[in-house]
Design a protein that fits this description.
Layout (H helix, E strand, L loop, with lengths): L2 E2 L4 E4 L5 H8 L2 H4 L11 H9 L8 E8 L2 E13 L2 E8 L8 H15 L4 E7 L3 H9 L3 E11 L4 E11 L9 H7 L1
Length: about 180
Amino acid sequence: MFHRSERLLLRPVFEEDWRELYEAINDEGIVRMLAGAPWPYREDDARAFAARGFDPMRPRLLVTLPGSCGSRLVGCIGIDGRDEGTEMGYWIARPFWGRGFATEAGRALIAIARMLGHRTIHAGHALDNPASGKVLRKLGFRATGEVRSQFSKGRGGETPVARYVNEIAMAAGMFDPSDMRKAA
């Protein structure tokens, strides 16, 4: 699955991406804001992440900046299954902070999720990462008012996380996969 936005190309993670992925995420300031990435982040962690299979209903996509000499890795974004449903997560490499790439990639991922038939996306951010909350609000997420303790591999322990939800209604006239189930 590939998706082109105004400035970005979102694409699947390939095994050969591991080194560029490692160089982009190997920053304690990034990893400590993530639930699933360990700190210190090692080359083997990047290799394992890049080797994971692709789930077309829950895509993990590299956020890249296309250019005449190939593309540069900006970050990673994806949706995953959690206890409460579909969960969005993302990170942006430090050289690309403050340029609107998280918001642009988030809009693209929401469009993909809507196309795949997801109706609700959940997300969260560590309380000490208010910039991520700002991005989520720009994307139409609303704060649920819930703050829960979540284990962060990057921090090596529990951290308080503010929870958000986005009801991504189907656009008028779009195919809704649940209509097929209703008709059966």
